[in-house]
Design goal:
The complex is a heterodimer. Chain A is mainly beta. Chain A contains two helices and eleven strands, in the order βββββαββββββα. Chain A has one domain: CheA-289, Domain 4 (OB fold (Dihydrolipoamide Acetyltransferase, E2P), Beta Barrel), CATH 2.40.50.180. Classes of the chains: A mainly beta, B alpha+beta.
Chain lengths: 149, 676
């Protein structure tokens, strides 16, 4: 890893904890009405407006192979930009956003969880042991790469 | 900080190079025009000076050699000819390259530049050794030195620009013999003294062999920051004349500026009329007024974005005001609507730039290529003043260059062939741009040998692109040229060909929502037409509903709207329908957007133009007409071709903007594939 991740935002998908690099996250939004874009992949939910711009939204849960994910009061959209440009903003739907965790104290261990058996999210930066939980840090570039292809 | 100045220098220098090229074009038509030569010289001089100042030493050296040549031209010691103009044109390319890369590091490039410089030097050497007779007579006169009285009064702020007036005085001294008088009476007492202000002015008596221009050139960078007066006192050197020495001493002690009258006694025995005529030539510099400013395009993009956002919010406000019914709010909303509309129009106008700016490159291309291929071509431009969105112009240059290249390479025949055909040996390419409704149309017409539709048909059959039995109209045949991998020339030429053809042009123009078409007649010529939108970000659209979503269809592509109950759908071919005795093929929007099927006979049919046909789109409901700001969908939805953007409606919901051409095109390909 070239850039050490110093803090992460954790969230849950299907009771499992995942996280994204805090520096890549731009906004966290409540679930809202998403305008469907026809002829796109199933996990591609559509577009929303954010500060006058249109940004696409994908369902991270569908990408992980979870069928018919629920929408609850906790469902949230995490808006990220993997390369820090406004043109690459994309929203990702998750079950529940948890907290910001500093990773400086704890060590990032190799992830043993293999997502490729169930869905499209297969690459992880590592796993952090926090209290009783294991948090898998998602490799965002890899996810973006999946979406673009 | 320095980088910022450098960037600005490069930007300004590119303008200078542009100016240089423009002047060269003019010079080519009028080789003895002194004003143009002067303009060229000035542009070179600025490049040289600026280059040295900002560390572009290679550039400075290079332009120095060019300047030397044009100095000879300027002083009538060298005649302009075609070769020199061509050489200078290629030199501008080198200059551009040097501006882009800064100082050269690649040894092969350095060698190349050296070779070019020696070519230029060769020019100035050979020509100066064989000075024509006519010039000789004049140069005898010029050899005689002249004494000038120069008044140099810099503004107070001159030091803040980094100019040291003393260096300028040194430069003057270098031109010949000079006596300088400094006027220092305006220097205030120490307590009021501002170290970055200039309080001095000077008078210089200069005796020189160099022409007046050389003196003016010394001040070329500070023209705007000072008052300069250059007056010719007399021919010959009078600086050491005892009377003049006395005058200078007097002026120094009394701080009273000298004027020409003081020298009248000295010049009595000289030719009087001559000197007085000359002395009227004042170089008083006029006030500098700024009529335009340079703004980075990012800032304009930002402004346009903000205005778009404002328009959206304003629509929401209108909606709220109407529901609320409070007359005060209604009045305010109306005023804001008016203002935001004006603001929007203004903001969009700012992002428009005239086509003219790009035309230089086209002229250059036509000139260079026609020289290279020894075809004589008249390039006529009409409508260069037409303005387009800068984003459109950016996307337009490459396709247009390609089209022009095609015309010169494949279109226009060689002079011999043209004579055989009974045409004038000189070919013509007309570049024409004009407004047509909400579009700008650009046509490139050549009078070359045209395209033979039969040849294209055969080739398409050979390549397996179309079926032998297929009967195609002339237009449909020409459209085959836009298929990828189709090139009419057997061999790949150096110019066009190279595997990129009209398909790339079509794709590029398509990216800016434009259309390309070809029309041609054998032996008469070919016309390529581009239909372009005026702006990318605002369209008039029809809001329609398909299933639960709202979509916008651009009004410009719509022909007519029908209710479905007035339409007869064919029983056997359910993709064909009959309206007012005409049959049209149609697309069920619910079907291609993968929604559940609606009831038969419900909904409305929108007839849209597709190439020269009309095709029906079946939607659930037409909601109304809206002017909408189109926002891009971003990189992740680039593959969704039939949607060109999205628009935020007054109530805050999003409507997707349909690109009908792409929609029909994509759909046609799909059908074709499934049938196969």
């Amino acid at each position: 890893m070239e850039n050490q991740i110093t803090s992460i935002i954790s969230f849950s998908i299907n009771e499992e904890l995942f996280a994204l690099d805090t520096l890549k996250v731009r906004h966290i939004l409540e679930m809202e009405n998403i305008t469907k874009v026809p002829n796109t992949k199933a996990y591609f939910l559509g577009v929303i407006k954010l500060h006058g711009n249109i940004i696409p939204v994908v369902d991270l849960r569908l990408m992980m192979g979870i069928s018919q994910p629920e929408i609850t009061a906790d469902t949230a959209i995490i808006v990220v930009s993997h390369d820090d440009s406004n043109a690459s903003l994309i929203g990702m739907v998750v079950d529940n956003v948890k907290e910001v965790v500093s990773t400086e104290a704890s060590e990032l261990k190799e992830t043993v969880f293999d997502g490729s058996t169930t869905g499209l999210i297969a690459s992880f930066e590592g796993t952090i042991h926090e209290g009783d939980n294991f948090i898998h840090v998602i490799n965002l570039n890899e996810v973006i790469h999946q979406i673009e292809n | 900080m320095i980088d910022k100045f450098k960037a600005k220098f490069v930007e300004e220098s590119l303008d200078n190079v542009n100016d240089l090229e423009e002047a060269l074009f003019l010079l080519e038509k009028d080789m003895n025009n002194h004003e143009i030569i002067e303009r060229i010289f000035r542009a070179m001089h600025s490049l040289k000076g600026g280059g040295a100042m900002f560390g572009f030493n290679d550039l400075s050296d290079f332009t120095h050699h060019l300047e030397t040549v044009f100095d000879l031209v300027r002083n009538d010691k060298l005649n302009i000819d075609q070769n020199l103009i061509s050489l200078t044109f290629s030199a501008t390319d080198h200059i551009k390259h040097l501006l882009e890369t800064g100082n050269l590091t690649d040894p092969s490039e350095i060698e190349e530049l050296k070779a070019f410089v020696s070519k230029i030097q060769g020019y100035s050497h050979t020509s100066s050794s064989q000075v024509p007779v006519k010039e000789k007579e004049e140069s005898i006169e010029e050899d005689e030195s002249v004494t000038y009285l120069i008044s140099f009064k810099p503004q107070k702020e001159i030091l803040k620009n980094g100019t040291n007036p003393l260096y300028l005085l040194d430069d003057l001294n270098a031109l010949g013999e000079a006596a300088t008088i400094a006027f220092i009476s305006e220097i205030p007492s120490l307590s009021e003294f501002d170290p970055v202000s200039n309080y001095c002015h000077w008078q210089i008596l200069l005796n020189t062999n160099d022409p007046l221009n050389e003196i003016k050139d010394v001040f070329i960078f500070v023209e705007d920051e000072c008052t300069i007066e250059i007056q010719k006192i007399t021919n010959g050197n009078i600086i050491s004349h005892p009377h003049v020495v006395k005058l200078i001493d007097e002026a120094k002690s009394t701080e009273k500026p000298l004027s020409l009258d003081h020298f009248s006694t000295v010049t009595v025995n000289k030719k009087k009329e001559d000197s007085q005529l000359e002395s009227k030539k004042k170089v008083q510099l006029k006030e500098h007024k700024i009529s335009s400013i340079r703004v980075s395009s990012n800032k304009i993009d930002e402004l346009v974005n903000l205005v778009s956002e404002l328009v959206t919010i304003q629509a929401q406000l209108n909606l709220f005001a109407e529901n609320d019914g409070n007359p005060l709010i209604l009045g305010l909303a109306e005023q804001i609507q008016k203002l935001s509309r004006q603001l929007r129009d203004n903001a969009f106008e700012i992002s428009l730039i005239p086509l003219q700016n790009e035309l230089m490159r086209f002229q250059r291309l036509v000139r260079d290529l026609s020289k290279e291929m020894s075809k004589e071509i008249d390039f006529i431009i009409e409508g260069g003043e037409i303005e387009l969105d800068k984003n459109i112009i950016e996307h337009l240059t490459d396709p247009l260059l390609h089209i022009l290249r095609n015309s010169i390479d494949h279109g226009i025949e060689s002079a011999e062939d043209r004579i055989k055909m009974g045409k004038s040996p000189k070919g013509t390419i007309i570049f024409k741009a004009y407004y047509s409704g909400a579009n700008v149309i650009i046509k490139v017409t050549d009078d070359g040998h045209g395209i033979d539709p039969e040849k294209i048909r055969h080739k398409a059959i050979k390549k397996g692109l179309i079926d032998k039995k297929l009967d195609l109209s002339k237009k449909e045949i020409f459209d085959l040229l836009f298929l990828s991998g189709f090139s009419t020339r057997e061999e790949v030429s150096d110019l066009s060909g190279r595997g990129v053809g009209m398909d790339v042009v079509k794709k590029k123009i398509g990216e800016i929502r434009g259309e390309v078409s070809i029309d041609s007649e054998i032996n008469k010529g070919t016309t390529i037409s581009l239909v372009l939108p005026l702006t990318l970000s605002i369209i008039d659209g029809l809001l329609v509903k398909v299933a639960n979503n709202q979509y916008v269809i651009p009004i410009s592509s719509i022909d007519k709207i029908y209710a479905m109950d007035s339409v007869k759908i064919g029983k056997t071919f359910d993709q064909v329908l009959t309206i007012e005795d005409t049959q049209y093929s149609f697309i069920k929007m619910r079907e291609i957007f993968e929604e559940e099927q609606g009831e038969d006979g419900s909904g409305q049919l929108i007839l849209v133009k597709y190439e020269d046909k009309k095709i029906g789109l079946l939607v659930d409901q037409v909601i109304g007409e809206y002017q909408t700001v189109v926002k891009p969908l971003g990189r992740f939805l680039k593959r969704q071709e039939s949607i060109s953007g999205a628009s935020i409606m007054g109530d805050g919901s999003i409507a997707l903007v349909i690109d009908t051409n792409r929609l029909i095109h994509v759909n046609a390909i799909k059908k074709y594939r499934t049938k196969k």
